[in-house]
Sequence to fold (491 residues):
Amino acid sequence: MSLRALWIISQEKGENVSIRFSRRFSTVELRAKNLAGSSYVAVPEESIFLHFLLTELGLADPHKSYVALRDDCLHRHRSPALELHVDGPGKGVLWPVLAILQGPLILACLPLVDAPAEPRPPLASLLSVSQGLTLLAGLQTFLLSSGSKPDSEGLASRLAMLPSVLLQVCPLGTPLDVPQLGAPATSTVPPPAGNQKQPAWKTGLHRGRAVVNVALTEMVRSMQYGNQSKQDLWDVYGTVTCKCEVEGVLPNVTVTLALPPNGSPLQDILVHPCVTSLDSSILTASSVDNCDGSAFSGPYKFPFSPPLEPFRLCSYTSQVPVPPILGFYQLKEEESQLHLSVTLKLHESVKNSFEYCEAHLPFFNRDQMGNVDVKVSSGQLEISKEKNLLIWVLGQKFPKTREVTMEGKISFSGPVPGPTDPLCTKLTAYIKMYFKVPDVTLSGCCVDQHSVQIYSSAKPRIVTSRELQSKEYFIWNSTGAAPVSSGHMIL
Fold:
């Protein structure tokens, strides 16, 4: 349900009438035009609309006891859903105009009707009518508080708050909520200060302690084969996510990404639309082109005016020389047994401190596991015979040698078949790694707390973090067939 327009009108027994507030929603009006087609009736200008509304309510020309458009016996008055004959009888009917009279105020709105104009649907079947009335009732309580005749200063104060309130409860003409009942005269969402106009995409303003959270997450993917005839592949892509709780209509925030002196330039950078300006050289680096060493290597500054909700400020890719964990996986089949050998080595450039690290070894297209005689040099081994799955829990650290091994035999002599997979037939098998390393990135990219700039009256608290996670990290059996890509991994 959406609204085409909303009006707040003040009057005193039909005199001293004025529109105190009005709002038209152009996107909803375009939908109304497309739905109605040739029978579309545009919302008239304020003065014309006000005249027809007051006439329909009997507040215009009170000395006239009979008005044909209103009092003709062929016209059925159905308050509070009114029809306004904008261009005369029989054509140009604006319907349903919802209106509530309370004290000195008339609250009116025109909801969008997602139904054919003819035959006119019954009011009881239109959700937009009931929701429109609910919104008007909420606005009535918000504006008039507990009484029906507020003082002029209190009403003016609430009307001044209305643009900000509507951005919260009815963004872009779609009611999401009603204003808080019995709302105090002081605003919890202050009106925009100065000449700044609050954009439609920003559904409210923050008020309170200023906090800026910036989280950098890098994901690493890998396909390792342990075979000289197949080239190992890996790639890294990162995202910077922000949550900015800063006062102001359009506060200015700048986040800077920095690389170590020998770091590879960031590539394929995409930014959120709220970024206000950007050096063109930042956007030109591409992983498709060969890096000649002259690419922009930072610092990468991103000035922006943030929305209220968490959002992805930017994303990027990076070329790193080696994957964080190098693996070798070998299977040999003898009768109904598999001999397996696994070696995993943590690269010296990666911090040896994991939030978690696991290696999953599934076996497909075989009978259910029988006897499992497998030993690991570090960590714990969990066995799920029903799923034909070994889970090697490596914990939070590799040993000092940064190398771990697994050796053993598995028989598949269970009474029922295990899980199937169309790809993993015969000796085609893989290890899938799951890990997360806090406070580190493969590219070396980081967000320095002191580099985050906020142009706000209040000094904010700045929280930054970074982490490395695995994503589609496979180590394939070197003695079996495996899927191979001839080029770079595609993001």
Remarks:
- The longest helix spans residues 127-144.
- The longest strand covers residues 461-476.
- The chain has six helices and 22 strands.
